[in-house]
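As a warm-up, study this chain.
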Amino acid sequence: MHVGATLRGVAGSLALIASRLKLDLDTPAFSTVRSWILRLGCHALTCSLRIGVWVYLIDHSVQIGSSKLLVILGCPVSDVPRERPLQHRDLRLVGLSLMEHSNAESVAAELERASKRTGIPRQIVSDNGTDLNGGVKLFQQQHEGVAHVHDLAHQAANVLKQRRKHDQRWSEFVAKLATAGAQVRQTREAHLCPPTMRPKARFMNLAPMVRFANRLLRLLDTHEASARAEACYGWLREYRDSLTNWTSEQIVVEVALTHIRTHGLDCETATKLDAAWSELSLTAGASEVATRLRTAVRVEGLQAEAGEKLVASTEVLESVFGKLKRLEGSYSGDGFTGLSLAVGAFLSESSEERVREALESVPKKEAESWARKLFGPTVQMVRRLFVTTPESVPNPG
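Now compare it with the structure written out below.
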């Protein structure tokens, strides 16, 4: 849970340590480690939670197949940190549901179910997905006073997307960078391969590419670049002005996200961001990005009451999804399994007392039963049956 090792990696490491230190100990198989993780996750999903005022972070995770995994994480408002971002240890697993058909009604039903564990939340944070928005709206119609804040990182990504899709220079830049990367990949200049753009949420991850291009430009300007680097990346000089603008836009976004992660959102946030941006030398494009983010922050901040700080980032939830994928290893793209319960094991403060309580409360069979109930026949299970079923032999007659 702490280092994100795979199940087989944990089992192999423990066996190696016991062998090298000549310890007369039985070490667990990977299946035993998996069972422990499932029991911890099941306990997190079924244990009693404090009834009070909570904030929910909700999102879907998708793999192959038509199902979506809805995850609802929560934190009591009184425990939300004010001078640092939310971390895994601050959160609890409040709800987990595999949805064959995700729509507003099904999301609202899961929010109702989650609220039975914590009480009606004061705030829900999501990424502005259509079905999530619809579900939260239905939930708000039944419960007054619930604020719905959209993750600022997604809003900033949408602003950048709108600007980039009309920017022919950006499209040319990305294409040329990919071509140059392919040219140096199998050479001594392989360290100059550019970052790979993600197929999903790419406009949330532009910073590494912009930083890389700036470093390349500095290398070219020193005249210390190799002949191959000059041949492959010399065209970058033609994009100097555009790169300056893209960098300025990225800085505006990063300043806003850093503030929101650390200090939350209230009716004064837009003013504070204006003060931070005023210290920067912004391009015209960056000023437009700042204007659009200022409007988004001001609208969202109106939901905060006097003296209240709202959460406006779901990045910690994205981090939880990333840790689950590391645990699943090469199987993370093969469809959801009961191991998704491990989300609950990642959260809250980890201590021997907590682990002991969870393992004593949830036997192995109960955890496996919960996994079957939540996930039913998985894609991996159906595939295994498909490939192991003996093929029928054609009748020669």
